[in-house]
Amino acid sequence: MRLIENRYLGFNPFRFDFKTKTDEQQWEKFHAHQGLEFLYIYQGYGSMIIDQKIFQIKPKTLICFQPFQLHKINISINQQCPYIRTMLLFSPESVDQFLKPFSSLYSLFKYLYKGKLQQPLFDISNNHKIPELLFEFNQRSKIVKLNNMREEFILFLISFLQGLRDVIPQNSEKISSPNRYLRHIEKALDWIEAHYKEEFILDQLASDLHLSSYHISHLFREEMNCTISEFITVRRIKEACLLLSSTDLSIQTIGKLVGLKSDSYFSYLFKKNIGMTPKQYRTSLKDFFMNVDSDSSGNIHSSVKLT
To answer: Where would I find the HTH araC/xylS-type domain in this sequence (predicted)?
Structure first.
């Protein structure tokens, strides 16, 4: 059984599922995610095990799951009390640069991302801002055009972190506490994020992580269900998609910026992963936006994934 869910290994930097409802008699999950996850409970009672500690779950609870943090959730459900929650899952790397200008929010973000959390569960029964922000973001996601969705998400995340400042004890010692221990796979992902635009050399990654090339390759495939090269390709193509949709840079320039110096190889990998060439992708986005302008039914709805 795979415990690490590859929910957004592809091209979606965030996922937002608003007020998902479960009526089953018993709901249980034991897994981890690659991203930073926030789970807000509207209805449902149960328990959660994380880092060998048991926490009680109840309505108006907000839970923070750090990347690759194994957790088990068990919810007891009946007809009078279904399990209703909103889930926000996103790639920390995709928002890091946008949060850096806000020093206090950035410190909080890094603490939630890599810090040693005093506890992952917060009672927000006296805080109405968080559920209101989730509701407003869901409403906005229905009317915002696809090319503005990334900006909308960043603005929402800034407001969300501001709301969390009222929930999480703002003790400077806690916020600046040492980072939690990072597993080898997390260190590998951090290394890739810093070097994916460069030529990939497996021996360099292994050396920097003080592991053998065989060990890190085997570990990566075991945990991520893909090779390191495949993952780097996905990361490069995801960045290329962003640049194609948000800039007027030439396709050749974008290929080089994401670490693919050969124009033909860039087009080959892009088509292999996306199903169309970079030029076709850029054209399809322009056509999509024109259709949205003339047809309001082209808006995004409740479960939001951003390409």
So the answer is: 186-284
- Name the one residue in this structure whose structure tokens are 């570990």: 219
Dihedral over Cα of 118, 121, 122, 128: its sign: positive
Tokens of 233: 């390709």
pTM: 0.69
Q: How far is CA 177 from CA 92, 110, 196, in A?
A: 19, 10, 29
| Residues 175-200: b if buried by 16+ CB within 10 A, e if exposed | beeeeeeeeebbbbbebbeebbeeee
Q: Residue 206: which of 177, 228, 180 has the closest Cα?
A: 228
Comparing 8 with 259, the larger pLDDT belongs to 259
Fold exhibited by the domain 4-175: Jelly Rolls (2.60.120)
Q: Is the pLDDT of residue 78 over 60?
A: yes
Fold for 184-290, please state it: Arc Repressor Mutant, subunit A (1.10.10)
- In degrees, rounded to 5, the angle at the alpha carbon of residue 108 between the alpha carbons of residues 105 and 114 is 135
Tokens 């109405």 correspond to 128
Residues of the chain with CATH 2.60.120.280: 4-175
Round to whole Å and give the CA distance between 46 and 5.
22
User: Within 10 A of 208 (CB to CB), how many other CB atoms are there?
Assistant: 14
Question: Mean pLDDT over all residues of the chain?
Answer: 82
174 has pLDDT over 60? no
Sort 29 into a burial class: Cβ within 10 Å, 0-12 / 13-18 / 19+: exposed
Six token digits for residue 53: 């500690």
CATH 1.10.10.60 in the chain is located at 184-290
Residue 95 to residue 157: CA distance in whole angstroms: 9
